[in-house]
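Hi again,

Forgot to attach this to my earlier email, sorry! This is the prediction with nicotinamide-adenine-dinucleotide bound. I've pasted everything inline since the attachment limit keeps bouncing my files.
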Amino acid sequence: MTANNPYEIARKQVDIAGKYLDLNPGILEMLKSTKRELEVHFPVKMDDGSMKIFTGYRVVHNPARGPAKGGIRYHPDVNLDEVRALSMWMTWKTAVVNIPFGGAKGGVCCNPKEMSLREIENLTRRFTWEIAPYIGPESDIPAPDVYTNPQVMAWIMDTYSILKGYSVPGVVTGKPVELGGSLGRLEATGKGVFITAREAARQIGLSLEGARVVIHGAGNVGGIAARNFSRAGSRVIAISDSKGGIYNSVGLDVEKALDCKDRSQCFLTRELEVEEIRNEELLELECDILVPAALENQITEKNAPRLQCRIIAEGANGPTTPDADDILFDRGILVVPDILANAGGVTVSYFEWVQNLQELFWSEEEVFDRLQKILCRAFAETDQIARQKKVSMRTAAYILGIQRVAKAMELRGIYP
Ligand code: NAD
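Structure tokens for the complex follow:
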């Protein structure tokens, strides 16, 4: 196996959970493959008048339980295997929280940090045109992921609507509220990380008041999670972005730090009166809760033996490799797996889709209330399987998710 190839990891995780399930081997094989893989190469007009060719993907892993659902990522490292893995994780995630969706993911290999807003808009609109025959509110519904945001969703929705000849808000979720986005969607993933970490803390008798929290990757997910922990009285002692992190053993002023990053695109150590810390060091800090919220493969067999946390709440998708998982399990570190910890985003995306179809909108309170219920139920169901089968929360979540998807496939049968 190629070192830490996310698709190989995603397939391996299915095998691990599969051992606990009495599955038809054909169904298991299908669960380990994707249903549809679209790769497109398309031109974009750049600001200097030149034309650049970009590569994009949209992969559907499994739509047995409903329309496929998953974000779109803009990043220089985007590749087919990464998108395949992310689409597979979406299938399990939607099943774990028991919402009627399947799994999909998309991405464009590009560096948005080096592109103007107009170039990003041109890229988004052309990419949407390329994948338009395959997306739609009943078939495959994109959402934001790394380096995409509500504005990008607005451009996708507009382009798709122009192609259709009428407004189709349900084609994407994570839209601006003014265009039919759901209240609470922007905060949903980070809030879900907080809610599931709180449940995990309760399990091990850890009080959130005063608990030391470390956040790796303070983007949408990490930033919101940090705010929630801080409001609950926890001490966020370190936080980072792709350039590096900041540390204060007593606890950072989270609002001030995030505000500084918004204004200056980085954490200014002098203004914040904090120490600088490298991302590798930050992951190994002594703390109670570690939230990896950036990219895949950050916790590996190399650093897992050195981690000094009690709980890992995975905001990012795929931050921990299977080898690292074994080490963490043996060391008694409780890992709340990505397909549960960051499922708040897709759950509120589901609420957004429902609101778009009904053309009836809910209050923020209603959204968070329903989110909390769904995540707490999913946590309890996963925890019960983990205890019964004496497995990690990740394997338990996979067992739960795979079981639900396999049952749906079995009931639908094979056509013709
Ligand atoms: P984002 O673009 O808002 O933030 C990503 C953050 O990670 C940025 O602050 C960036 O500087 C930082 N980062 C990038 N590379 C890093 C590195 N090597 N080390 C440390 N920090 C690094 O993206 P996001 O939407 O917050 O997504 C973060 C993760 O959460 C991804 O794995 C994504 O798939 C997952 N996720 C996001 C959502 C969502 O609703 N946005 C839902 C579920 C899962």
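The mean pLDDT is 97. The first strand starts at residue 36 and ends at 45.

That should be everything now.

G.
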